[in-house]
Amino acid sequence: MRWRGCGLQVDLRRMGLVTLDRDRRDAALDAMRSLEAGAVANPHESRRVGHYWLRSPGRSPEGPAIAAEWETIRSLADDTDAFDHLVICGIGGSALGPQLLAGALPRFGLEPVFLDNTDPVGMADVLDDLELSRALVLVVSKSGGTQETRNALAEVRARCSDLEERAIAVTCEGSALWELAEDWRGRVRIWDWVGGRTSITSAVGLLPMALMGQDTKGFLRGAAAMDAHTREAEDNPALMLAEAWWQARPRAMVVLPYRDRLGLFGRYLQQLVMESLGKEGLGLTVYGNKGSTDQHAYVQQLRDGPDDAFVTFVHGHGRTLGVEVEPGVHTADYLLGFLVGTRNALTAAGRKSLTIVLDDLTAEHLGALIALYERAVGFYASFAGINAYHQPGVEAGKRGAAKALDLMARLQVGEDVEHSDDVELLADHLRRTRRL
Prior knowledge:
Blueprint: E1 2-5, E2 8-11, H1 22-36, E3 40-42, E4 47-48, H2 63-77, E5 85-89, H3 93-104, E6 111-115, H4 120-127, E7 135-140, H5 147-159, H6 163-166, E8 167-172, H7 176-180, E9 186-190, H8 203-211, H9 216-229, H10 237-248, E10 252-257, H11 265-277, E11 285-287, H12 295-304, E12 309-316, E13 324-326, E14 329-330, H13 331-348, E15 353-358, H14 363-384, H15 392-412, H16 421-434
Helix pairs in contact: 1-14, 2-8, 3-8, 3-11, 9-14, 10-14, 11-14, 15-16
């Protein structure tokens, strides 16, 4: 089964996909139509899910506000003459989307760096190499209270006396960060119906794109075009993709993009797929980096080890051949040759794979590729009978971190606490960092 459109090709012929189950297909399409019509999709928080509206405002009850936000983004991006660098403070979807965009597409504006963890050594490594007086600071947190992002902001503030003049907040209106940023250079809204892992076509992705001088209009156009194709019952590439995953029933998907600029695509899909589908004992583990580099690490087991994964090959046609390394053979020829050879080696061993080919790697193609996977994840969740749009495991981890910090505070004042392996680890940290 193969599909072509939006400047890309989805080839599922090596997945062993027999046919689409019509009842399953129709139920998934009905669920998606309900979602796009504004139904509450996340009952745990009484929230709609509307990331598809972000590239088609005419379908949204928030259409005028979305269009107004595009203008705000353009205005902020037009006023960057005083800056050379862009410091992005964010974590999870607030960093992964901009990181993917920064690596995948040409940049003609500010040079980005990322503070996407609360590791003080890592943040110092980034900030020590910057002239902060020439840096614009973007603080991204939907809730406005993400602790890792708050800590990154604190590290920047400690080095930057005029932060307010160079900082922009991206957050929900009314959040603590929104209020804090009232006197900053700017603030841009995220709606509560945009999830972090699907926020790349919101200000979370579009503002960094605009500041980096990338093609936001093309990116939205590509995503909207793929959305249109994946609303249809017939010849729907996202339904085909989700059905191929479902029929294969693997435990893992290995992503091998054969373009360095897509090296972060597998990492981006880890959050999109695993946070959406990893529930109720189900899930699809995503790992991988890039071909041909990482096929040296994976292919032996993928071909001759347990048959518990399929490979997604991603190729982007380019206009650069590279140097001629043999008569009539260039470095770009070898790159594609390794993809074809590896794919055939897996097929010969009875292992499944699928291939996605982009006509070129532009903003429009990347927008279509991301929208394809967003929709496929939603369809797969419908097949599995799970809610793709909440993340109770993530919230449990945040609650656990708060308890650990409370326990650390009790240890610092000498309070007696019940012994545990957590206490051992926290006490050792305090001894090494506070000399307690």
